[in-house]
Amino acid sequence: MMVDRTMEEFDRLDVLVNNVALAKGADRVPIIELDDYVFHRVLEVKTLGTYLCTKAVLKVLIDQGEGGKIVNIASGAGKQGFVNMLAYVAANFAVVGMTQSMAKELGQYKVNVNCVCPGAVDTSRIDNFGRGKGWQEIIDGIPIGRSGTDDEVGEFIAYLCTNAASWIHGQSINMDGGVTMAH
Fold first, then answer.
1. What pLDDT was estimated at residue 183?
2. How far is the C-alpha of 132 from the C-alpha of 109, rounded, in Å?
3. pLDDT tens per residue across span 66-125
4. Rounded to a whole number, what is the largest CA-CA distance in the chain?
């Protein structure tokens, strides 16, 4: 349906940004307390959603013959584990791996695939977490000394969708003020 509506309105499709997650909540608990349904749901939304949306656009991107751009959104939790975040970490690691597989397979069709791994970004989603002592501790751990903004992340995603970024392929790029300086 989303592909059909896009094609009806624009007569082509060039970019897919897979940006999906569940609101914080029941998945942020010790492993022993993590409900099996919640674990499954977090993986289903993040990984199955990314897979299904990607699969839905591929025929159009390939048939157009001009390639396209796919940008998956993971998290810094796709690069390192965190306490009480097993489901979220597993789902984001999966998206990082999926990005690599997609890039290797789809490069032959000129479909550029990358992943952005934001860290602490000050959005309304943080309201679920709270802006008290815990949020301040996160900010204090960022080498650059501040959280990111949704504009910064959005502008970088937009850049990855330009011709200037065509040589960037199969990468999962940290965007977290220096928290993750490896990979």
1. 57
2. 47
3. 999 999 999 998 998 889 999 999 999 999 999 999 999 999 999 999 999 999 898 877
4. 52
**Nearest-angstrom CA–CA distance, 146 and 99:** 28
Residues of the chain by 3-state class (helix, strand, coil), percent to 5: 50, 15, 35
Residues 127-155: b if buried by 16+ CB within 10 A, e if exposed: eeeeeeeeeeeebeebeeeebbeeeebee
Question: Backbone dihedral region of 19: left (phi > 0), alpha (psi from -120 to 50 degrees) or beta?
Answer: beta
The sign of the CA dihedral 166, 167, 172, 174 is: negative
CATH ID of 8-175, from 2.30.290.10, 3.40.1280.10, 3.40.50.740, 3.40.50.720: 3.40.50.720
- Exposure string of 101-112, with b = 16+ CB inside 10 Å and e = fewer, is ebbeebeebebb
Identify the residue whose tokens are 């492993």: 31
pTM passes above 0.85: yes
- Residues recognised as catalytic: 88
Parse the chain into domains and list their residue ranges.
Answer: 8-175
